[in-house]
Amino acid sequence: MRIDDYAVIGDCRSAALVSRAGSIDWLAWPRFDSDPIFAAILDEARGGSFSIRPTGSFASTRTYLDGTNVLETRFVAGDGTLVVTDSMIVSDEAEHRRALVPEHELLRVVECVAGRVEVEIVFDPRPGFRPPRISIGRDSVRSTDGATMALLRGVTGMQPAAGGGVRGILRMTNGGRLVLSLVHAARDPAVLTPLGDAATARMESTTRWWRRWSSLARHDGPYRAHVVRSALALKLLCYGPSGAVVAAPTTSLPEEPGGSLNWDYRYCWLRDAALTAHVLYGLGYDAEGDAFVDWLTHATRLTRPELRVLYDVFGRKPSRETERWSLAGHAGSRPVRIGNAAADQFQIDVYGEVIDAVAQRCRRGMRPDPETTTMLRQFAEFVCENWRRPDHGIWESRGGPRHYVYSSVMCWVALERLLELAARGDIALTPAIRELVERNRDELSAAVRTRGWSEQHQSYVEVLDGDTVDASLLLLSWYGFERADSPRMRGTLEHVDRVLGAGNGLLRRNLAADEGAFGICSFWGVEQLARGGGSLPEAEARFSALLRHGNDVGLFAEETDPATGAAVGNFPQAFTHVGLVNAAIAIERRRHDARGSSR
Amino acid sequence: MSVGSWLLWGFVATVVLTTLMAGSQGANLTRMNIPYMLGAMFTRRSTRAKVSGFFLHVMNGWIFALLYVAAFHAWGAATWWRGATIGFVHAAFVLAVGMPLLPYMHPRMAREDEGPDAEPRLEPPGFLALHYGVQTPVSVLIAHVVYGAVLGGFYHVAG
Questions:
Q1: Are both A312 and A425 inside the same structural domain?
Q2: Which of A209, A359, B133, B147 shows its CA 20 to 30 Å from the CA of A453?
Q3: Does residue A200 belong to any structural domain of this protein?
Q4: Are residue A176 and residue A95 in the same domain, yes or no?
Q5: Mean pLDDT, to the nearest integer, of B81-85?
Q6: What is the pLDDT of residues A205-225, one digit of tens each?
Q7: Claim to verify: residue A171 and residue A228 sit in the same structural domain
Q8: Does residue A424 fall inside a structural domain?
Q9: Chain B partners of A98 at a C-beta cutoff of 8 Å?
C-alpha cells in the first residue's frame, strides 16, 4: 500500500490508519505515542493488522461521511457490494456523566448492500510488535499483553490464522449487517459496550458529534470543503486531555521511499505553535486554540528559560530515540524509529513561535498571569543573550549548527511581540529590559536585512552571509518582518520558486536533501501570493493545483513526490493541513478585501 | 478495643493498599481497580464511579480493619506477621471466591451467561481476577499482606 492509500480515524487521543483495502494497518493505543497494536504499515509480517474485505477480487472507493471523521469504504466484488464504516467512538464529558465508557472503542460496521459477498476478517494484533496471548471466545477474541487487553466482539467462527492472529470467513447477503467492536483497556477493567442497535446508536452519536464540531468552522468560499477536512484532521491530532497537537499520528513513514529519513512525529513541536494557533483561532475554534496555548505555556514552564524543540502530549521530554532495524519498514525504509532525537537540538526559533502564539491569545483578550509574564521575560532575555549562537534551524539539520536567517527572524519576532505585549499593558518591562529588548531587536533586524539578503539573487537567503535559499523565508511576511508585497518578498518568492520549485506549485524545503516537495512550504507559496506577493488568481491557481496532491479523502502527508505525485513522510501531517488552512484563510481575506475595494 | 488506633491505622493501611494497587496498574501488572469497581455498583456514570468509589474504598478499608482488629483481640496481641497472615487469607478468599461471584452481585458487571443488554458493563474479573492481567493475583496478595502487616504492626491492643 502507498501512504496515500490510507485514511485516518481517531478519538482525539489516538488514531488509526485504514487502508483502501479495509485493513487497519496502524493503531497506537492508548495514546498517539504508545506502542502500536497494529503496525503492518511498517512491517507486514510483524506489525499486525485488522482487516475486513471481500475474499475475491474487488474494487474499493471510500469517503468520509460528510463533516465527520467517520470513514466509509465501499467494496464492489464479483457478486455483491460491501460497505464497511469505521470510526473510533468519541465520548464527550456528557457521555462520561451518563454511562460507563471504555478507555477506547473502535467500531466497524459491515453491511452487504447488494448481492452476496464472502467476507474475510483477519484480526492480528501485535502490541509493541510482539505476538500477544490470544483467546477465542464464543463471539469474541481477546488479546492480552501484560495486563493490557484488546477485546474484539461481534464475530463468531474465528480460527487461529497461519501467519498469526485469528481469521474468519462469513457469507453475507443483501441487507446483512454485522457490528464489530474493538475495546482497549490498559488501566482499568474493560467496559464492555452493548452491540447491535446500541452500537449503531454510538456510531450515530459520534457522527453527530463530528458534524456539530465541523459545522462551527468559520470559513466560507470555494475551498470550504478542503478547509473543513483539514480542520477535522487537525482535531484528530489534538490530544484532548491536554490540548497538545501532535505533528502526525505515525512514525517512520519515509520521506524517501527505501531511505533512512524515517522519523517519529507523534510529538508536539513548539515550532508549529504560532501557525497552528492561527489556524484554530482563524476558524473560530477558540476553545481548541486556548487549550493549545495553555498546553504550550504549561509545557514550556517546566523547562524555562530553555525550551525543548518538542514535547510529548503531557509536556514531557519524549522517549529516547531508538532504531528498530529488525523491522522491515514501510517500503523497505529502515530503520523504524521510536522517539525523536531532535528533542535535544538547539533551535532558537522556537522562542519566537511560542511568544507569538501567546501574543495571538492576548490579542483575543487573555491577560497573561504573573507566571506567564515572568516566563515571557525570561524567554526574551534568553533570546537577547543567545541569538548570536548558531542553531540547527527550522529543518532540524543533523549536521553542525549554522546562523539561519529564519532563526534570526524568529528571534526578532520574539522581541517584537514582547514589546507589543508591553505596549498593550499585558506585561511590564523595566526601562533596562525594554532598552535591552529594543536594542537586540534592531540589531537582529539590521543583521537580517544586510547579511541575510543577497543582492545577486534579489532574495533573502538561508543563512547569514550565505548564497542558498530555503522555503522558510516565505514566512518572513507572515510574521510581519517584511510586507508580502514588498519588492524584497516578491524577489524572494521568485527566487525560491526558481530554485526550489518542483512543478504544479510544489516547493522543496531546501536543496540539502534528496526528498519530496514539502506540503507546508508549497502552501506558504500560496499564502505569500495571497497576502500581496502576487495576484489573487495566481494564488488561487497555485492553491487549486496543490489541492490535487491530497489523496482521495483530502488528506496530505508531509511531502509529495514531484515525479509520481505520491505522498511521502508521516501521514496525515498536521503542519501540511495547517499550511492549507492558512493559505485558504489568506485567499479568502484577499477576496474579501477585493470585494470591499470594488464596492 | 482502641477506636482511635483502629481508625488511624485502618486508614493508613488502606492508603498503602490503594497506593500499591494503583502502582501495579501504572506498571501494567494489573487492571484491577477496586475503587472503580466499587463505585460502578452505585452509579452508571464513569467519572462519578471512580471518585465515589474511592471514598467507598476507604470506608471498606475501615470496615475490614475492624475484622482484623477483632482477630487481633481474639489472639490477644497484634503483630505484623499476624496481620500479614490475615491479609493473605483475606486476599486469597477474595480472589478465589469473591471475584468469580462478583458479576452476580454487581449490577453493572458482565456475566458469562447474560443475555443482550443495552447498558455498558464492566469486564468481569474471572477466577483469581486473571482477566485483569496474569499478575493480578500477585499484586492483590502483596497489597493485602502489606495492609494486614501495617494494621498488625501498628494497632495497639489495649490492656
A1: yes
A2: A359
A3: no
A4: yes
A5: 96
A6: 999 999 999 999 999 989 999
A7: no
A8: yes
A9: 44-45
Closest CA to A331 of A264, A258, A420, A392: A258
Chain A residues 100-129 with a CB less than 8 Å from chain B = 100-102
Would you say residue A271 has pLDDT above 70? Answer: yes
Residue A479 lies in a domain: yes
Rounded to whole angstroms, how far apart are CA atoms A242 and A432?
Answer: 37
**Residues in A touching B28 (Cβ below 8 Å):** 146-148, 186
d(CA A195, CA A140) in angstroms, rounded, equals 12
Q: What is the pLDDT of residue A327?
A: 96
Q: Are residues A570 and A431 in the same domain?
A: yes
Is A366 within a domain? yes
Q: What is the pLDDT of residue A315?
A: 86
Position B116 scores a pLDDT of 56
Record the cell numbers describing residue A504, joined without a space: 504544479
Q: Which residues of A touch B33 (CB under 8 A)?
A: 187-189
Query: The whole model's pTM is what?
Result: 0.89
Do A407 and A472 lie in a common domain?
Answer: yes
What would the mean pLDDT of A345-354 be, rounded to a whole number? 89
Selecting from A100, A189, A198 the residue whose C-beta is nearest the C-beta of B31 gives A189
Q: What's the rounded mean pLDDT across residues A323-341?
A: 93
Closest CA to A233 of A560, A550, A566, A561: A550
What pLDDT sits at residue A579? Answer: 96
Over chain A, what is the mean pLDDT?
93
Closest Cα to residue A273, out of A356, A348, A339, A344? A356
- pLDDT single digits (tens) B122-155: 888 989 999 898 899 999 999 999 999 999 999 9
Per the listing, cell 477493567 goes with: A189
Q: ipTM > 0.85?
A: no
Which residues span the domain enclosing A150? 3-191
Domain count, chain A: 2
Rounded CA separation A405/A396 (Å): 14
Residues in B closer than 8 angstroms to A197, CB to CB, are 118
> Both A461 and A584 in a single domain?
yes
Q: Which residue in A82, A81, A75, A86 sits closest to A24, CA to CA?
A: A86
Residue by residue, DSSP assigns A7-29 as EEEE-SS-EEEEETTSEEEEEE-
Are the C-beta atoms of A406 and A442 separated by less than 8 Å? no
Q: Could you report the per-residue pLDDT of A502-536, keeping only the tens digit for each?
A: 999 999 998 876 678 999 999 999 999 999 999 99
From A97, A187, A194, residue closest to B120, measured CB to CB = A194
Residues A159 and A114 placed together within one structural domain of the fold: yes
Q: Which of A89, A98, A100 to mutate to test the interface with B (most CBs of B within 10 A)?
A: A100
Q: Tell which of B102, B131, B136 to mutate to test the A interface (max A CBs under 10 Å).
A: B131
Q: Touching check for B108 and chain A: CB below 8 Å? A: yes
Judging contacts by C-beta atoms under 8 Å, the chain B residues touching residue A99 are 44-46, 119-120
Cα separation, A421 vs A334, whole angstroms: 47
